[in-house]
């Protein structure tokens, strides 16, 4: 369903942007590298009716996508924020059209849109979940497990998450760390819903290796090939019994439409940052729902701000698979919100307060801030 009732306009006074360095509880390793600190941009929209918060989910280096933190900071401060402040009074639904002339930079746009949306909804006393069309008050919680030292260490890591109650396991794979790792987890945890994520680490030359994963009864294989390999993903999908899910490739409603038309994906990972905002994310959800294609909510190691918004998004009816919407403690000892998301019976609650429904912990925010700039009208 498209957004049923638009949000009210807000009068923008400015934006505050901060780069945060938030330590991770443990290193997180994917096919493209290892992170020990989450470098992220937090946005605060300053309006005459109060503040709103958003998160730009870029990483320090352009390894997951072409976007990265310093690039997002530059484009936001140089082009995107001035365009929004130039408009002055605007509704959250106006943000994407105003920023549309600037090519790409979807994560930066998404973080700004979320801050405006949060400000508008807080002023109206309306929860984000209700605005987006949530139909659940809690969402099943999956966990993304990074590449470990060896398959035995991976099994122990997975065991810990299952003991905590996570209802679905995703393991990261890369060439040389795929079949044996998946086999080890499947052998130890027979009935566990399991999926793998390659973060674009393969080519069609690896098609027979990827086909070996078919015997592990996986929910899906996520983004085996490059971002723009849509036709190759379709070729691969015809060769595998494991459903192919796209993450990096789905950068917009148009990309999702094309991928489905070509048979490149039978499952879609929706990340608001990657597609330019929560409103575009809802449009992709609607497209997939109409096409009976299951979707799930991806994660970008969000702080409590983005994590609250992801829980709201994941509560829409088409999100029929558990998402990477974990408890805050999966990544952080200390979050920047006063009530970080917790795991309850394998689920994360959808906040019910106005806007994001979470409050910022100003001390934590200050402690993690490494750069700060305020732009005013
Ligand atoms: O937030 O739980 C999370 C992270 C989930 O694995 C995750 N995200 O490709 O899906 C993905 C990755 C992108 C970030 S990797 C550093
Ligand atoms: Mg992924």
Write the topology of this structure.
Blueprint: E1 10-30, E2 33-47, E3 50-56, H1 69-87, E4 89-90, H2 92-99, H3 106-124, H4 128-132, E5 138-140, E6 142-145, H5 151-164, E7 168-172, H6 179-188, E8 194-197, H7 207-212, E9 221-222, H8 230-239, E10 244-246, H9 253-262, E11 267-270, H10 272-275, H11 278-290, E12 295-297, H12 304-314, E13 347-349, H13 362-368, E14 369-376
Parallel strand pairs: 6-7, 7-8, 8-9, 9-10, 10-11, 11-12
Antiparallel strand pairs: 1-2, 1-4, 1-14, 2-3, 5-13
Helix pairs in contact: 1-3, 2-3, 5-6, 9-11
The structure holds N-succinyl methionine (SMG) and magnesium ion.
Task: State the main characteristics.
377 residues, alpha/beta, Enolase-like, domain 1, TIM Barrel, seven-stranded parallel beta sheet, five-stranded antiparallel beta sheet, binds N-succinyl methionine, binds magnesium ion
Structural summary, described in words:
This protein is of the alpha/beta class and 377 residues long. The protein is 36% helix and 22% strand. It is built from 13 helices and 14 strands. Helix 2 packs antiparallel against helix 3 and helix 5 crosses helix 6. The model has no long low-confidence stretch (mean pLDDT 98).
CATH architecture of the largest domain: Alpha-Beta Barrel
Cα gyration radius (Å):
20 Å
Characterize the biggest β-sheet: 7 strands, parallel
Query: Helix coverage percent of residues?
Result: 25-40%
The topology string of helices and strands comes to EEEHEHHHEEHEHEHEHEHEHHEHEHE
Indicate the overall shape: globular
**So, the CATH homologous superfamily of the largest domain?**
Enolase-like C-terminal domain
Number of helices: 13
């Amino acid at each position: 369903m498209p957004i049923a009732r638009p949000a009210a306009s807000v009068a923008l006074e400015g934006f505050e942007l901060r780069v945060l360095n938030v330590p991770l509880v443990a290193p997180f390793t994917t096919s493209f590298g290892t992170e020990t600190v989450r470098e992220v941009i937090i946005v605060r929209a300053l309006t005459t009716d109060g503040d709103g918060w958003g998160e730009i989910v870029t990483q320090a280096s352009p390894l997951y996508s072409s976007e990265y933190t310093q690039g997002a900071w530059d484009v936001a401060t140089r082009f995107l924020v001035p365009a929004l402040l130039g408009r002055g009074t605007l509704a959250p639904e106006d943000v994407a059209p105003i920023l549309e002339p600037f090519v790409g930079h979807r994560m930066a746009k998404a973080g700004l849109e979320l801050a405006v949306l949060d400000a508008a909804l807080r002023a109206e006393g309306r929860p984000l979940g209700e605005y987006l069309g949530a139909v659940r008050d809690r969402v099943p919680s999956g966990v993304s497990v990074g590449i470990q030292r060896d398959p035995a260490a991976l099994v122990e890591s997975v065991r810990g998450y299952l003991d905590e109650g996570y209802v679905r396991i995703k393991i990261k794979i890369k060439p040389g760390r795929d079949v044996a790792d998946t086999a080890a987890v499947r052998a130890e945890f027979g009935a566990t819903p399991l999926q793998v994520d390659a973060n674009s680490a393969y080519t069609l030359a690896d098609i027979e290796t990827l086909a070996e994963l078919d015997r592990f009864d996986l929910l899906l294989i996520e983004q085996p090939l490059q971002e723009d390999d849509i036709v190759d993903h379709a070729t691969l999908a015809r060769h595998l019994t494991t459903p192919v899910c796209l993450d990096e490739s789905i950068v917009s409603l148009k990309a999702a439409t094309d991928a489905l038309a070509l048979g490149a994906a039978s499952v879609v990972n929706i990340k608001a940052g990657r597609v330019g905002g929560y409103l575009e994310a809802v449009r992709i959800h609607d497209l997939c729902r109409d096409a009976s294609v299951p979707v799930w909510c991806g994660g970008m190691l969000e702080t409590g701000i983005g994590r609250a918004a992801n829980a709201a998004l994941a509560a829409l009816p088409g999100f029929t698979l558990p998402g990477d919407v974990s408890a805050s403690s999966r990544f952080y000892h200390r979050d920047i919100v006063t009530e970080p998301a917790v795991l309850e019976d394998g689920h994360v609650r959808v906040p019910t307060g106005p806007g994001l429904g979470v409050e910022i912990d100003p001390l934590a925010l200050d402690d993690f801030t490494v750069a700060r700039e305020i732009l005013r009208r």
